[in-house]
Each structure stands twice: as C-alpha cells, then as structure tokens.
Please model this.
Amino acid sequence: KMPSLAVGLHVSLAYGVPLLPPAEVPLLVQGQRFPDNPLQVGLRCSLNAAARRQAQREIQAQFQRFATEGPSLSHVDTHLHMSLTPAIFRLIREEAR
Model:
C-alpha cells in the first residue's frame, strides 16, 4: 500500500534471540538468548576472533532473512547502537555491500 516507504534492517546482537541456533553462536549467547549487556557483546566481538566470526554468521543470517521476507532494503541500523563498536560496524558494512 505504501511503495515509497523506506524499510530497513535493525541488526540485533543483544537483548533478543539469535536467528542461528545458539549452538552455532555460543560466544554470542547466554543460554538461548543474546546477553542483556551490549558492552559485553561489543568487547567480546572486538577482542575475540571466534566471536567475530560467529557475529558475522549471525549478521549474515539477519540480512538473509530480511532479503527473503522483507521488502527492498533501504537502510541498516543496529539495536542499542552496536554499530558504534568498530568490529561490529565492519561486519555490518561488509554484509551490507
């Protein structure tokens, strides 16, 4: 009904549930959910290469889900400004390309 409506992807790595099974992103989750501490996620992704690889796969899954179920992508932002973390920003920038 609104073809000019700009719709974006809101990437989340904190306060929520990953798209990937938690066993595939164990360094990003506490139990079945992302932690409720965005600082913890940002530090882990900045300092741990394995956590960055898991974040990359989760970000790819979120982009893929949007591509298959959403309208055309207008923009990308992040929950709780997680893209201010340089390591996470780089992952999102690469996937957005």
